[in-house]
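EI: anyone free to look at a 97-residue chain?
SC: sure, send it
EI:
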Amino acid sequence: MLLAAALVTVLWAPPAQSAGAEAPAAIVIPTKPPTIAEQAFDLVILRPLGLAQTAVGAAFFVVFYPVSLVTGGSDHVVDTCWKSPVHQTFQRPLGAL
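SC: here you go
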């Protein structure tokens, strides 16, 4: 029950930014090519975890999106539950940790 309350609080809260602060860049381009070990770690460990995170995020999205439409935080829910996990799993270059 406490975990559900914490998740609702986190998903409803708007992202914290100070006045006049620029938004962080969404895509980080590595300055050097990834090593074979980094690519293997990404492929074997991080991508399956990202797939699980995408599935869990989709489940939370189905639950919290209707509520966020009423409260006006739908963009935050879409970014947190769907766009971020999908980007980390499917769009990020292999080995770009």
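EI: The longest helix spans residues 36-71.
SC: 👍
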